Amino acid sequence: MTETMIPLWEVFIRSRNGLAHKHVGSLHAVDATLALQAARDLYTRRGEGLSVWVVPSNAIVASDPADKGMMFEPTASKIYRHPTFYDVPDEVGHM
Amino acid sequence: MATGSVTVADTPLLRYLLRRADDALILGHRVSEWCGHAPIMEEEMALANMGLDLIGQARSLYGYAAEIEGAGNDENTYAYLRDERGYLNLLLVEQSNGDFAATMLRQYLYSAFIHPYWLALMGSPDTTLAAIAAKAEKEAAYHVRHSAEWVIRLGDGTAESHRRIAEALVRLWPFTGEMFEVDAGERGLIDAGVVPDTAGLREGWKHDVAAILQRATLEMPADGWMQQGGREGRHTEAFGHLLSELQYVQRAYPGATW
Fold it and tell me: pLDDT of chain A along its 95 residues, tens only?
């Protein structure tokens, strides 16, 4: 019961320099300071992180699952958008 | 058949190591008692993390003590096979958890002392001690931050949370003076430049604690009569109950391993 009164936060972690912050989960916390501490305690116990972001879940604007067809299906037939028709020289390395 | 207790040699450095190790072990054990009982999942993990940090610190210190003593004791015999009078921890850390407010306040009062202590110990010419301190310092810094945030929020929270943490403050305060006590053996180590002088940390601790209590709208208790005895192995009633649980498996099943 008490938990429903505690705001929900989304947690993003950057595991290495140069990578983007990645969504890893959510948590409950009364404010931003404690949300950041809880994110550290819950999601970085095994050396996962170099940087943590927390964002109030209600700040996220999400697509409607009912719009799935309109939003995402039209791309399925456009295989030419995938850069798979090129030979990448070995010297280029990781792309 | 129950296992007999071990005896430990009595030298100033060994005594010093066991005191610090016992502080960490006993507080770590207390914090671990929250497993499955924390008010929210997030604090369940925060408490478990702090407990594991502390028990890790205890292991490092016991390991060094075993090396110095060289009498066949190891971290397990120190932790599980001494009698009550052999434990030299602060009375503060053995006090029962009480509610979440009391647990966080106890954590804060201790961490606000031990964090600057580890920082000072990092300068020790004893490289093992300095290395243990360097690792523990980072862990303690987080314990200070986490517990202080809760002290502030509970003190400056609802009437109920304020009442609970104010009561805990009155209950725990008489156990804080012992942190700064130094006996002749430890004085020798201080004079030799091996370890920092806890007495020198007292003003800084009071200053830090006063600032947090003020933000928590809590009144700092006056420095009255202080409890002591833990450093000499004289414990409060709560300690026997703690030990009976801590030692149960090794006493009932001697030498049991995973």
Answer: 454 589 999 999 999 888 999 999 999 999 999 999 999 999 999 988 899 999 999 999 999 999 999 999 988 888 888 877 778 888 887 76
Q: What is residue B221's three-state secondary structure?
A: coil
B198 vs A80, higher pLDDT: B198
DSSP assignment of chain A equals -GGGGSPEEEEEEE-STTSPPEEEEEEE-SSHHHHHHHHHHHH-TTS--SEEEEEEGGG-----GGGHHHHHGGGGG-GGGSS-SSPPPGGG---
| CATH code of domain B12-252 | 1.20.1260.10
Report residue A26: phi and psi, to 5°. -140, 170
Chain A residues within 8 A of B45 when measuring between CB atoms: 38, 41-42, 45
Chain B interface, mutation test: which of A34, A43, A44, A52, most B Cβ atoms within 10 Å?
A34
A38 inside 8 A of chain B by CB: yes
Look at B153 and A27 and tell me if their CB atoms are within 8 Å.
Answer: no
Which are the contacts of B229, defined by CB distance < 8 A and separation ≥ 6? B91, B178, B235
Q: Is the pLDDT of residue B1 over 60?
A: no
**CB proximity B146 to A under 8 Å:** yes
> Mind telling me how many Å the CA of B136 is from chain A's nearest CA?
16
Q: d(Cα B107, Cα B113) in Å, to the nearest integer?
A: 10
The domains located in chain A, with CATH, are 2-87 (3.10.20.520)
Cβ <8 Å between B49 and A34 = no
- Interface confidence (ipTM) of the complex: 0.83
A14 bridge partner residues: A51
Contacts of A14 (CB under 8 A, 6+ apart): A20, A21, A22, A49, A50, A51, A52
Radius of gyration of chain A (CA): 19
